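Re: that chain you flagged

S.,

Sorry for the slow reply, it's been a week of failed gels. I finally had a moment to sit down with the sequence you sent. For the record, here it is as I used it:
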Amino acid sequence: MQSQPRNRNLPHRSRPSTSFWKLRAGVAVLFFLAVGGLLLAYEHRAHLFSGSSLLIFLLLLCSLMHLFLHGGHGHGEHGK
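Prediction finished late last night. Pasting the structure tokens below so you have them in one place:
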């Protein structure tokens, strides 16, 4: 005779899913990323504003393409 789990018919209790970015740790990560980005921009301001607009354009283009076109290979299907 095989033993069955005792709590087989009990309802499954799950915590409500909260986004990481809404937790205290997520806010702290965003804060430190923002401060780090500002410090990085401040330290490299000579390169950012020296006429290297092609480099900035390419970086922005890559970021925007990743942001808007990322759902094409399965990452947009998390909730389905």
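What I noticed first: The CA atoms of residues 3 and 9 lie 14 Å apart.

Talk soon,
D.
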